[in-house]
Description:
The chain is an alpha/beta fold. It has helices at residues 45-53, 75-81, 98-106, 112-122, 124-127, 139-151, 169-185, 195-201, 219-222, 226-232, and strands at residues 7-16, 19-29, 33-39, 60-65, 68-69, 83-86, 157-161, 187-191, 204-209, 212-218. The chain has two domains: 1-82 and 156-234, Rossmann fold; 90-154, no CATH class. The protein is built from ten helices and ten strands. Helix 3 packs across helix 4 (112-122) and helix 3 (98-106) packs parallel to helix 6. The mean pLDDT is 91.
Amino acid sequence: MADNPLLESDGLCTYYGTSQALFDVGIKVPSRGGVAILGRNGAGKTTLLKTLAGELAATRGRISFDGTDCTRAAVENRVRRGLGHVPQEHGIFAGMTVKENLLIGAMGNRTGREHIEEVITLFPRLGQRLPQKAGTLSGGERKMLAISRALLGRPHLLMLDEPTEGVWHGVIEEIAVRLEELSREMAVLIVEQHVKLALRVSQYCYVMDRGRIALEGPSDQIRDDPELTRLLAP
Ligand code: ATP
């Protein structure tokens, strides 16, 4: 793991009311490459991403991004600094067209409109559906739109919460290939139930259990670790 990570959390604790969901979570994400977060349902993966994105407040601990403390920074401030987040529920505007959704992603980015052309080349099927209402896209196309929209903010780190959830297996491969390509150029932090895919697009992996990091290591080693099977067993 890099000595100067782009994102680092240390001792992170998050609560929902009085119920603690994260316990002293420490992760590091280097400025390039993929990092995966795995864990059973309810292990705390989404809570971790939301805390890193600023949607949930950390009660204790510290988050630093690009060398600056951002533990208390607002969501918009983190986005401006380069922290992109594709939430599990993808947050696209169903009543707007694909193009309008992309334009929203490009807002605040001077070269955003030109960048749309570039982003569309990643997912050509989106380019063919620019006038279509986003609510009529397939599950996989919605995920592609959400990823593209986040990329238009020109993030340094792209955090993805289950990018292949509810996606037809033929499209999963397309998303996996794009994520592999992206992670060669930027930092990608991925939460995934699809363990094989997560380990394929990442070089380093954290496995969560009941709100804690229970196992971590290089993805090609974790893949064969019997502890991984135990931690992911229902
Ligand atoms: P999944 O893989 O099912 O999406 P996860 O690993 O992402 O699960 P989280 O959604 O982060 O897990 O949930 C962690 C814990 O926090 C769970 O016990 C969950 O019930 C609880 N939790 C999540 N959201 C809330 C909420 N809004 N209010 C109260 N508790 C919550």
